[in-house]
Amino acid sequence: MLSDEFTDRIKAAAASKTALRVQGGGTKDWYGQTPRGELLLTEKHTGIIDYDPTELVITARCGTPLSELQSTLAEQGQMLAFEPPAFGARATIGGVIAAGLSGPRRASAGAARDFILGAVLINGRAERLVFGGQVMKNVAGYDVSRLLCGSLGCLGLLTQISVKVLPIPRSEMTLGFELDQQDALTAMNNWRGKPLPVSATSWVDQRLLVRLSGSEAATKAARQQMGGTAIDQAEAELHWATVREQTHHFFKEQSLLWRLSVPASTPVFELGGQQMIEWGGAQRWLVNPSCDPMQLRQRVVNAGGHATLFKSTDQSAAIFQPLPAPLLKIHQRLKAEFDPAGIFNPGRLYPDL
Predict the structure, then answer these.
(1) Phi, psi of 153 (to 5 degrees)
(2) Among 87, 155, 152, 102, which Cα is nearest to 261's?
(3) How far apart are CA 69 and CA 290, in angstroms?
(4) Among 15, 81, 219, 323, which has the minimal tally of Cβ within 10 Å of its Cβ?
(5) Confidence band for 132, pLDDT divided at 50, 70 and 90
(6) What mean pLDDT do residues 217-238 have?
(7) Under a CB-based contact definition with an 8 Å cutoff, are residues 77 and 95 in contact?
(8) Does the pTM exceed 0.90?
(9) How buried is 138 (Cβ within 10 angstroms: 0-12 exposed, 13-18 middle, 19+ buried)?
(10) Quick one: DSSP state of residue 201?
(11) C-alpha–C-alpha distance, residues 59 and 162, integer Å
């Protein structure tokens, strides 16, 4: 049984203080600091363990391909509502949760961590820990399942995940608007304060696209209220897929790609380079800025946000926003509690973890 093999491997690594580099499909190895340690592969630990469409919950082993899970859900008219990027055909559900990334629907549906109901983790003591469960109401106290989302495997080996799912919308349409950046931000903020079924937004190349999702009556009424030009359905689906998977031409000619997370009402950032804006203004992708990283991060912090060096030719650079000393201490204490020997993905999230 693979879980027993994992336990034996972790016991041996803890005893010898050998670093382990946890990997599923390897589609997100570029994300975070440079991975190091002996490979601990999870891609053979596969299978959907439990799925009852009426309960809107699916439970799967960490190595289960994301594509398999999504196909199973689609057969029942359901989906992962946070619309996770795969970044490759070999993406696994374990990697999705470990990375904690969400796609275009995040601003309306919620983030990846909002949909985690339960998880099974093997910690640095080779103990099998069970957190949360498979129903919405059995999470009490500190929700460790959500803590694991976005941890990049630095707390332990995530072997099983239970995720809340939602029905696929009955109707979707995408509207196009020719607007400059400030006018696009103004429009998105105006719509945010109204009961409109907006499920995704993207501004790039002086063009704002807005996806509406819901009942047919709701999407038609929203279109009449918002205006714009209806985009062909096939073209629209391709656009949102290329934004989610970062195959859109915006992402192709870049040596530095920054992800800026800011309040949606933040005005235009003049930072040099090119920008794409998502999530109603709250997520801004910045390619090849002309300012230095410290200046960029300080301007984003001053706006009430944080900046991630999402992709770079140098993975030894500071990828994530440096933590204040008190918050770093909390992270270090959590790391020490879950992984006392420091064997899981050392330095992948922060150099001091």
Answers:
(1) 70, 15
(2) 102
(3) 41
(4) 15
(5) confident
(6) 97
(7) no
(8) yes
(9) exposed
(10) E
(11) 4
Instruction: Work out the average pLDDT over 244-264.
Output: 93
In this structure, what is the dihedral angle of CA atoms 194, 197, 200, 201, given to the nearest 10 degrees?
A: -40
With CA atoms as reference, report the closest residue to 10 among 93, 123, 105, 116.
123
CA dihedral of 12, 17, 18, 20, whole degrees rounded to 10: 90
User: Taking the CB of residue 182, how many other CB atoms lie within 10 A of it?
Assistant: 10
Sign for the pseudo-dihedral over CA of 207, 213, 216, 218: negative
Q: Is residue 88 a contact partner of residue 27, using CB atoms and an 8 Å limit?
A: yes
Q: Tell me: the pLDDT tens digits for 157-193? A: 999 999 999 999 999 999 999 999 999 999 999 999 9
Q: What number of other Cβ atoms are within 10 A of residue 108's Cβ? A: 19
How confident is the model over 330-349, as a mean pLDDT? 96
* Residue 110 three-state SS: coil
CA 275/CA 261 separation, integer angstroms: 13
Residues, the chain: 353
Look over the chain and give the mean of its residue pLDDT values, rounded to a whole number. Answer: 94
In the chain, the amino acid numbered 243 is V
Tell me the three state secondary structure of residue 107. Answer: helix
Contact 189, 264 (CB under 8 A): yes
DSSP strands (E only) in 29-115: 38-41, 48-52, 57-61, 78-79
Question: Residue 95: what residue type?
Answer: G
Buried b (16+ CB within 10 A) or exposed e, 201-213: bbbbeeebbbbbb
Q: Where are the beta strands (DSSP E) in the chain?
A: 20-23, 38-41, 48-52, 57-61, 78-79, 116-122, 128-132, 157-164, 166-167, 171-178, 198-204, 207-214, 229-230, 256-261, 274-278, 283-287, 306-312
